[in-house]
Amino acid sequence: MEGQFRTWKKEKKTNIVYDDVSEKKKQGDDDLVDVLLRFQDDGIQIPLTTENIKAVILDMLGGGGETSATTVDWAMAEMLRNPRILEKAQDEVRRFFDDKGGYVDESRIHELKYLMSIIKETLRLHLPLPLLLPRKCREKCEIDGYEIPVDTKIIVNAWAINRDPKYWRNPDCFEPERFLDEDLEVDYKGNHFEYIPFGAGRRICPGMAFGLANVELPLAMFLYHFDWKLPPGMKHEEMDMSESFGITARRNGDLFVVPVIKRPLPPPVK
Ligand code: HEM
What we know:
Blueprint: H1 2-10, H2 14-27, H3 32-42, H4 50-81, H5 83-98, H6 113-125, E1 135-136, E2 141-143, E3 146-148, E4 153-154, H7 158-162, H8 208-225, E5 226-229, E6 258-261
Antiparallel strand pairs: 1-4, 2-3, 5-6
Helix pairs in contact: 4-5, 4-6, 4-8, 5-8
The chain binds protoporphyrin IX containing FE.
Cofactor: heme
Main location: membrane
Keywords: Heme, Iron, Membrane, Metal-binding, Monooxygenase, Oxidoreductase, Signal-anchor, Transmembrane, Transmembrane helix
């Protein structure tokens, strides 16, 4: 960021940044950085350094962007591979938002039970951080007869847990319906150790609500406004669903799809 800033300075482009900031100030339009800087100025109980602010922004971009984007990509890929699921999800989303004048927004999005179950199933099979994050053990403990000394680095294989046949019927199949079953009460909050896409306990992902919103809204919009087709010659049952290794477990290769507009954006409300 600082490098970019220097380049801008050389090119005398910093005015763009300052103009934008002062324009926003005029409009009283605060973003996250404005709020954090205000906390810094006002002096809260815990001092907030500029380094802290930079770290928060880095966490937001690093932790938040790739994880949500990977989830949207996997959900779309799974639906395209399973046209029955895609059609059922589109029916639900279109019925719901047609009644609201064609505006897809977040209010009451959680009433879309089938879409929510697709997202849950996507995060069961394709959790973006399959090994969560490495942690250090603070106290000596014993797990399954193994003694774990203090300071041992712990890696939790959440990928394997989320596919364990002891807890999941047809564990490797993409079956969103399993989450509609009222007997299967699992949520994201780390209360059910057989399902931990966001981790669990005091180090559970702090961006969970934001991350889910970043997945729910784009998917609802994609499904509502467009029909989706695979490029000519590609068969849905032949799609490559293998994973690659990186910051997150993305699909191997990019997803190529052909969107067909079905419901254009309605004119803005005056
Ligand atoms: C679908 C979206 C997301 C998924 C699946 C996800 C998943 C995870 C997982 C599995 C962990 C490790 C938890 C553990 O070790 O027990 C984690 C940690 C973290 N996540 Fe997320 N995350 C998502 C979105 C976000 C967003 C949007 C943000 C920020 C805006 C974020 C910020 C963080 C941070 C800062 C940590 C480290 C927390 C700590 O070490 O105490 N995540 N996330």
